Amino acid sequence: MSINYSERIPNNVDLANDRTLQRALEHWQPKFLEWWKEMGPYESAAADVYLRTATGVDAQGWATYGSVKMPDYRWGIFLADQVADRTIGFGDHFGEPVWQQVPGELRSQFRRIIVTQGDTEPASVEQQRRLGLTCPSLYDLRNLFQVNVEEGRHLWAMVYLLHAHFGRDGREEAEELLLRHSGDVDKPRILATFNEPISDWLSFFMFTYFTDRDGKFQLKSMAESGFDPLARTCRFMLTEEAHHMFVGESGVGRVIRRTLEVMKEIGSDDPTAVRSHGAIDLPTIQRYMNFWFTSSLDLFGSEVSSNAASSFASGIKARPDESQYQDHVCGDATFALETPQGPESVGLRNAMNEVLRQSYIKDCEIGIKRWNVQIQRAGHDFRLALPSPHFRRSIGAWANVPTDPRGKPIGREEYERRMLEWIPSESDRSFVHGVMKRVVAPGKMAAWIAPPDRGINSLAVDYEYVKLN
Ligand code: BYC
Predict the structure, then answer these.
(1) Does the beta carbon of 159 lie inside 6 Å of ligand 1?
(2) What is the pLDDT of residues 167-180, one digit of tens each?
(3) Which of 218, 311, 314, 359 to mutate to test the pocket of ligand 1 (most atoms within 8 A of CB)?
């Protein structure tokens, strides 16, 4: 079904024919806009931003581009098309028809997962709220705003499911999603990474590379869900998520390119010299990577999780791209887990969080390889590397086990003492903040980042992507 933009809430779910649901969502809409005004991008309401908006949900023509003031963005409800005769592809209900309504006995589990997913979306907008003040270019400012409006739309996606399928509980949860805030001492966001401040653009690029990629894997596993509306919602969200990860990968790549240019100009790789020429030295980039990668690893939950086992068994959440596996039931299969006490064999269903995490790590490696090719081509021996998944963990079997970034166990005293060699120190952060000066002349870039290879939607890099007004 195509998207109906003539209604107050754009949608392709025939909202007009469900007056009760429509009214409930129209009641939530002004609260969302109020939240956007208070917690969304700072001082951005008057800006005209070159944004893409969904027009259809098929792969060919979902996006249209145009200049929009963000508060007027048409946030709405877009589900990927229904697949006829779809059956559940995993777990105890393998082969049964998918559900159009939530089965009563799975209600609270589904609600918990939808709320957790929904909570991350406004959280990220809150985390990134002040970045516009230090944007390195109009091109980057536009990308930030694009990511922000789409995270807002992802919130709409989860709120629709809560309203349409969870009655009064769902409506209450939808309100709560606007009341918790990133980093709030009393009402923080649910998952720890979404309470970390993102106060500089290097963190933003790392977040969109590493944390949005967790989003990709979680959405892929929910896109397999036996609850068809959740699966269809997540399938469409994935198309938006791809741009967010592009922002991360190309962003970090451009920071590295600029650093390499400066290293060539000054004929030195000495971090102090690189910094004194306004670029971000490679070891600092590695420390930011260590921070955001390890924090994002925690988002997959514990290595051994009865919640994950029951999600898989009952048809809530599968492995990403479940069809790539032979065994979709995993009733007796086991998984070899590395624990601080040594190798341990656990039921595969219980290890589903770890299966996801390992696929995620492989996917993270791809960008690191590309960045290292840049460094190698420039003739330097330095190589970026993902730290061990056992390093600096706060959730699961490795939580609070002191290791170095290679995963070698070390004493707690050494761990605490050396942590500032491994993740950004106060002085790294203050240096990085110091170089983040706002650049808003069309086509101009801040000194710490190279220009992108191309502009948005075939426009030139120096196009005025945001008119600040
Ligand atoms: N921080 O059995 P456990 C995205 C909780 S990102 C704090 O180990 P389980 C995006 C857990 O909730 C994708 N708490 O794991 C990216 C549980 O608490 P309760 C977001 C944590 O249950 C960028 C308890 O510990 N989507 O979209 O299998 C920008 C025991 O849990 C953490 C999802 O996460 C943590 N890191 O949970 C914008 C998908 N980890 O309920 C957006 C939905 C675990 O016992 N969520 N806990 O009080 C899920 O599928 C699951 O909830 C988890 C793993 C993946 C989080």
Answers:
(1) no
(2) 999 999 999 999 99
(3) 218
